[in-house]
Give the backbone structure.
Amino acid sequence: MAVEMEKRVRELMESKEGKLVRDQAKAAGNGARAAMNEGGLSLAAMGKLVESWKRH
């Protein structure tokens, strides 16, 4: 099992497909951070939700 895990980790670290996976994960992380920043979509959505609660 450890040998198989090592093989998969090496594939992610050394292959073109692994680079694509890493780049996609990085982009997803950047998008998540941007959504949580001031004026980001997640923060804005949370603000709208809170405002709707205040009105009811």
Notes: The mean pLDDT is 89. Residues 16 and 22 are 10 Å apart (CA to CA). The two ends are 56 Å apart (CA to CA). Residues 16-36 form the longest helix (21 residues).
